Amino acid sequence: MGCCTGRCTLIFLCTLQLLAALERQVFDFLGYQWAPILANFLHIIIVILGLFGTIQYRPRYIVVYAIWTAVWVTWNIFIICFYLEVGGLSKDSELLTFNISRHQSWWSENGPGCVRKEAPMPGIKGLDSHSYISVIGCALEYRYIEVVHSSFQILVALVGFVYACYVVSVFTEEEDSFDFIGGFDPFPLYHVNEKPTNLLFKQTYLPA
């Protein structure tokens, strides 16, 4: 298949997904968002598997990738609902940190234009003697940045799912047609029986 086919497009989509997942993983690590970190890690592994299957003509790996894209879309829809506080969810809860810490998204304090206001806490000394009071001046609220990230992931995953199904169907058709013409036959189609030749040589050496 040429470079303009669905196979090359799927390779491009997997590469794009891999780069986007790595970027997202970095910021989730900075924000100590443990649930997204685990989800991103699984996503990276399966995208690499899908990329390998596409390059090496392995339909089973691409099927695993296609199934995962459906799970990945569901996860990102949940993230959008979480930050938009849909269905009783709260962006201020500790759900994404497994209730281990009170950290929020890294973008909540480091978004574009954000300025952090600090004030000393009375009666506490040492390295933790300051606490963030407020974050002001943000050009875009952090929850919308997270929503944009998840929306982009959903868009690429949906396109990847479509192309994965297409590439699997093409690979399957090629395997079936190859099998039909005897590609997987243990004996070649034009197998020559060597027995008559052996008999001819034997007749040559018979005494006159």
Automatic annotation (TrEMBL):
Q: Can you say where in the cell this protein is located?
A: Cell membrane
Q: Which GO terms describe its cellular component?
A: plasma membrane
Whether tRNA-binding counts among this entry's keywords is no
Classify the protein's membrane topology as the record does: Multi-pass membrane protein
Lineage, uppermost ranks? Eukaryota, Metazoa, Chordata, Craniata, Vertebrata
Q: Belongs to which family?
A: Belongs to the NKAIN family.
Please indicate which superkingdom the organism of origin belongs to.
Eukaryota
What is the annotated signal peptide range for this record? Answer: 1-21
KW Electron transport (keyword) present: no
> What is the protein's given name?
Sodium/potassium-transporting ATPase subunit beta-1-interacting protein
Gene Ontology terms: biological process: regulation of sodium ion transport
Q: Which UniProt keywords apply?
A: Cell membrane, Membrane, Signal, Transmembrane, Transmembrane helix
Question: By its UniProt entry, which InterPro entries does this protein fall under?
Answer: Na/K-Atpase_Interacting
Q: Where are the transmembrane segments?
A: 34-55, 62-86, 152-171
